């Protein structure tokens, strides 16, 4: 629903509640996206670091 449509009907409290719910919903979605991408980033960093350590130790201890 559009806020203007509800304001015209005279139900201003409902407009505020709906707008707040929309904002909270958007914040929750953004938070979920951030957590998902943080997890992907940290897993990739761990894999890259483990690979470099493996290559480093494998190179030094093979000689």
Overview of the structural elements:
This protein has 63 residues and is an all-alpha fold. The protein has one domain. Helices cover 90% and strands 0% of the residues. The chain contains two helices and no strands. The longest helix has 51 residues. It is rod-shaped, with a radius of gyration of 25 Å. 0% of the residues are buried. The mean pLDDT is 84.
Keywords:
single chain, 63 residues, mainly alpha, 2 helices, rod-shaped
**Helix/strand order, N-terminal first:** HH
Radius of gyration: 25 Å
Q: Roughly how many Å apart are the termini?
A: 71 Å
Q: How many helical stretches?
A: 2
The share of residues in extended strands comes to under 5%
> pLDDT under 50 segments (min length 5)?
none
Q: Describe the sheet with the most strands.
A: none
Number of strands: 0
Integer count of domains: 1
Class by SSE composition:
mainly alpha
Task: Give the topology.
Blueprint: H1 3-8, H2 12-62
Give a brief outline of the structure.
The protein has one domain.
């Amino acid at each position: 629903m559009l806020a203007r449509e509800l304001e015209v009907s005279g139900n201003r409290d409902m407009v505020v509640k709906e707008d707040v719910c929309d904002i909270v919903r958007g914040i929750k979605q953004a938070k979920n996206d951030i957590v998902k991408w943080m997890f992907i980033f940290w897993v990739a960093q761990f894999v890259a670091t483990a690979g470099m350590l493996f290559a480093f130790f494998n190179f030094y201890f093979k000689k």
